[in-house]
Amino acid sequence: MILQKGISRKYFLTLVLGVAIAGGVTSMAIGELHEDGTQNQALKPFKQESLGKIIESRNGKPFVLAFWSVYCAICIQEMEVWREVRKQHPDFDLVLVSTDPIDGEQRINQVLQREDMKGFEMWAFADPIPARLRSVVDSKWRGELPRIHFYGPNAIADVRMGKVGKDDVLDWLKIQDG
């Protein structure tokens, strides 16, 4: 059978099948399975209203908000601190926000998987103009990373620039526990 303009049915079906397979591969890349059978957590799109939603959802409970990037070596080194703190405090509430565009989800997930960050809430910038999102977080923030916000029960952030150590986080947690 010949379709419009000389495209054979076989070619048409091959094309349709190829598109379907490519769509499936994309879905698999975003939702890859770990060796232990768990699936990547979906990145939430960090938009202008997201910071308010993150804070509000905590209902005054202390948490840490960490801004990072796949291209920030110090940020990735800092993930070891988050893993170590989680081992000592399984209820440690960490929100990771990648400043990389969410359309690079596959690369972001690769780093998060390699660094064993499953179980933490994860977001990625979802605005074509990152400066808009940074200004919602802090009007003076120009993109320096890592950037860590320690939120206490009053929902006011103690902001730290640069790598924080495990002892810094543990000391902050002691203060939060009273």
Q: What's the number of structural domains?
A: 2
Q: How does CATH name the architecture of the largest domain?
A: 3-Layer(aba) Sandwich
Beta fraction: 15-25%
Assign the structural class, choosing from mainly alpha, mainly beta, alpha/beta, alpha+beta, or little secondary structure: alpha/beta
Distance between the termini: 77 Å
The number of distinct helices, counting runs of at least 4 residues, comes to 6
Order of helices and strands: HEHEHEHEHEEH
Taken from the alpha-carbon principal axes, the silhouette is globular
CATH topology call of the largest domain = Glutaredoxin
Describe the structure.
The chain is of the alpha/beta class. It has 2 domains: 1-30; 41-177, 3-Layer(aba) Sandwich (Glutaredoxin). Helix content is 43%, strand content 18%. It has 6 helices and 6 strands, in the order αβαβαβαβαββα. The protein has a 6-stranded mixed β-sheet, with helices on both faces. Strand 2, helix 3 and strand 3 (94-101) form a beta-alpha-beta unit.
Task: Compose a concise summary of this entry.
Helix content is 43%, strand content 18%. It has helices at residues 9-30, 50-57, 73-88, 105-114, 130-137, 166-177, and strands at residues 44-46, 63-68, 94-101, 121-125, 147-151, 157-161. The model is unreliable at 15-34 (pLDDT under 50).
